[in-house]
Amino acid sequence: MAASGTLSTFRLPPLPTIREIIKLFRLQAVKQLSQNFLLDLRLTDKIVRKAGDLTNAYVYEVGPGPGGITRSILNANVTELLVVEKDSRFIPGLQMLSDAAPGKLRIVHGDVLTYKIERAFPESLKRRWEDDPPNVHIIGNLPFSVSTPLIIKWLENVSCKDGPFVYGRTQMTLTFQKEVAERLTASTGSKQRSRLSVMAQYLCNVQHILTIPGRAFVPKPEVDVGVVRFTPLTRPRIEQPFKLVERVVQNAFQFRRKYCYRGLGMLFPEVQRVESTEKLLELADVDPTLRPSQLSVSHFKSLCDVYRKMCDEDPHLFTYNFREELKQNKSKNQERENDKERSRR
C-alpha cells in the first residue's frame, strides 16, 4: 500500500482514451445487457466529485465496463479501488488500468448480485452505525437491467446492516434511468411516487444529484440518466423487518390509481378482507380514500406497525398470497364448470 504522501499526488500516467480502449479490444455494448458506455471523462470526474471526498477511501465500483468512471476514481486519491465486472471482454482494458496504478486497483471477474463485499476491505474500516459513514464508498454506472433488483438488494442489506454495510453507513452513488432516479427521490403526492420511493426513503437519505443526457453515452440510450446518492440513516423511519415493509408497500402500490384500501386489502384472505382492511386502516389512522402516492413514510410506518401486530396474532397471515388464492379459486371454478358439463351429457 502506498504511503499517504504518495496518495495525495497520484495521477494516472498517459493512457489510451476510453474510445481507443473500446477500439483496441473491439468492445461493443450488448443491448440485451443494457450496456451503455460513458466516454466523457469530464462527466465521469463530475460523478466521482458528487460522491464526496474520496481521499484515502476504499471504493467498490460495480459494472466498470471499459473503465471511464474507474479512471476518475483512481485520480481521486483513493487508497484502493475494487471493481467487479461480470463481462470478461472488459477485463484486459481494466488490467491495463491496474498496471498503470500499481497496488491501487483490484479486479474481480464476478457478479455484483452475488459478490461478498463484506470480506473485501480491512476490518479496521468498520464504524459503529451511529457514527459518521466509514471511508468506504460504492460507485457505479449500472446496466439498466440490474439497477432496480440491485438497489432493492442493497436496501435490504442496509436494513440488516450486512453486505456492504458491515462497515457502517456506507454511501452509494449510482446511475439509473432518469425515470427510476425520479421515483427513488419522489416526494409524497408526486406522480413519480412509487414502491421504490418508500423503500429507499425509509432507510436512506436519497438525493438526485446529477442528470446526464443520453447523448453522452455510447450507444445512446432512449432516456437520460440520473445519478443518485444514498446515505443510510442512523435510524430507519420504519422499524420493522425489511420483508414485512416490502410486503405492505408492494401491496399498497398494487393498484396505484385506486384508493389505498384496494391494494392493502390484498394483504388479507378474501373471507376476512373487508373486516381486516378496515381494522388495519382504522388502527393505523390512515384515510382509506388516499391514493397510494399520497401515503407518506409516516403513514407506512403506522401501517407496518399495525400489520406486524396482526401477523403476531395470526402467524399464517404473513404467508398469505392473494395471487395463490386467486389461482386456487380459478381452479375450483373450472372444476365446477367441468362437473356441470359432465352432468349434462
Descriptors:
single chain; 345 residues; alpha/beta; 7-stranded mixed beta sheet; two-stranded antiparallel sheet; 13 helices; 9 strands; disordered N terminus
Gist of the model:
It comes from Panthera tigris altaica (Siberian tiger). Helices cover 40% and strands 14% of the residues.
Topology:
Layout (H helix, E strand, L loop, with lengths): L3 H4 L10 H7 L12 E2 L2 H10 L7 E5 L5 H7 L5 E6 L5 H10 L4 E5 L26 E5 L3 H17 L10 E7 H8 L9 H7 L2 E9 L4 E2 L6 E8 L9 H11 L7 H5 L8 H12 L12 H17 L8 H23 L1
Parallel strand pairs: 2-3, 2-5, 3-4, 5-6
Antiparallel strand pairs: 1-8, 6-9, 7-9
Number of helices: 13
**Mean of residue pLDDT values:** 90
* Percent strand: 5-15%
Structural class: alpha/beta
Taking pLDDT < 50 over at least 5 consecutive residues as the criterion, the unreliable ranges are: 1-7
Give the end-to-end Cα distance, rounded to a whole number of Å: 85 Å
Percentage of residues assigned to helices: 40-55%
Rg over CA atoms, rounded to whole Å, is: 24 Å
String of helices and strands: HHEHEHEHEEHEHHEEEHHHHH
Major beta-sheet overview: 7 strands, mixed
Number of beta-strand segments: 9
Gross geometry: elongated
Strand order, sheet with most strands? 4-3-2-5-6-9-7
